[in-house]
Amino acid sequence: MMKYRKYNHRKTIMGLLSILILFLFLFPRMGYANEGTLTFHVTPEFPESQIEGTNSYFNLTLGPGETEELTLTLQNASNEPIKVQVTPHTAYTNVHGVVEYGKDAQTADSTLTHSLNELIEPSEEIELSGNETKSIVIPIHMPKEAFEGFLVGGLRIAEVKEEQDETPSDEEGVAIKNEFAYVVGVVVSNSRDSVQPDLELLDVFADQLNYRNVISATIQNFTPTFVNRLAVEATVQRVGENDVLYEASEEMMQMAPNSNFDFPISLEGDRFQSGEYVLNLRATSGEEEWIWEQTFTIEADEARSLNRADVTIDSSMNWWMIGAIGLVGILLGVIVYLVIQKKENPSKVKK
């Protein structure tokens, strides 16, 4: 794998403008992310450690080993009693290049030294009477050792519905659990010293997204800071050939600190073909640029398995072809039978 990295340096005035622009993009615009129809409202109450200028999520500077209290005011907007629970999560980057604050990655990035969900205590179920307002406190415990950059995640505040069994006449009951949630972001650091973002290309492989064939390129942000305004351009070719088989590009993506995601390059309905391929990928973030070239192999068994699972590929039997082959087989059988009969009964052949 070949990797190139290029830095551009500007004059002082351009550097100052870049810092101002970076400040606008440095922290996530989280606000309140909601799911479905909510019957309650959440308002964060900010402590003294809150960074000035942010009022939609917790943005804190805390010392090593320090404990802070995150206060949330919950308001039941309905006349009926409800139950609510608060769970902490560590931010990660999803396949679309968007930072997720209210869920956990299936597998945390190997460079993540402190998971925010392990530093924040989850709440018990909180009962709210009709139209009741209640404040709750969620402690966050900073790591004892100092760290660079940011720890990022979110508090997911979900209404918990009672499980209900729907029992058809001759079938077993089906448990249905509905949840509606807010997500309040959390960003904490020991200091606001800037950290230079850096990326790595970890892997390239045949994959599927929503049951459709794609080639995935795993891009890793191994630094404890956001990668903002991320743009990616990628092409795939067969080794030794110049024709571009597949390509993809995306702009204005963002990566969470110490996270990775699989950038998908769609096959646009094509079947995987076994063989050796080469990926050329260029990524940019502001004035930073990364360029990679990496070869990879698609095995025949892997291609067949993925092609069968692709919902856009017709893998059903070709009955016309099967019928034609069957007809040819029957005709051959008749011909062979007649030849054998002729050899066994030569006397019946007239003159």
UniProtKB/TrEMBL annotation:
Presence of keyword Metal-binding: no
Residue ranges constituting the WxL Interacting Protein peptidoglycan binding domain according to the UniProt record: 40-158
Membrane-spanning residues: 319-340
InterPro entries: WxLIP_HBD, WxLIP_PGBD
Domain of life: Bacteria
Keyword Transmembrane helix annotated: yes
Pfam families xrefs: WxLIP_HBD, WxLIP_PGBD
Residues in WxL Interacting Protein host binding domain copies: 172-308
UniProt KW keywords: Membrane, Transmembrane, Transmembrane helix
Coiled coil: none
The name this protein goes by in its record: DUF916 and DUF3324 domain-containing protein
